[in-house]
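Support request, please re-run this one:
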Amino acid sequence: MAKKSNNIHYVNNAEFLEAMIKHRTAVLEAKENGKEKPRVPNYIGECFVKIANHLAYKSNFRNYTFREEMILDAIENCITYIDNFDPEKSRNPFAYFTQISYYAFLRRISKEKKHLQTKYRYIQNIDISDIISENPDGSEHTNEFISYLRKQIDQSGLDLAQDTDESKKTTKRRPKYFDKKDDSSLDI
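Re-run finished. Output below.
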């Protein structure tokens, strides 16, 4: 028999499903009676926080400096889409909200990349070498930071060009049933 985990970081899917069913029935009753939608229970909120926090420790997302923003976006999206979870279609709320969190992380990463590219374009447009290389006494010196910035700006431009090229090449997947394996299946 499986041993029940008492870990505080563990989301029990059965309890989570039960809480989601209770919340869904309360929301549907409030909608039928014309009342205000009830608040999300604390247990469900704690589950959202646990899911987002532990997804942020995954190797894909661990080293980003904006991890807190990714976690907050994930929690916000989970709360936004809580009413879309239907226990009749799926009995796994953990997987449902983990996917929501995952895609919230990806959206935050793409937003931050755009902001970073904007910063690089701004740095590229100003004459940063004159600002950094001049000392207050008027003498000039070399700085490795300038070459580092230029390398980052160039790499950012290449990444942006590559991303746009890849987005143009992406094709939609074709359903398998469109492919004819044998003509005998078409006999009437």
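The chain is about 60% helix and 0% strand. The mean pLDDT is 81.
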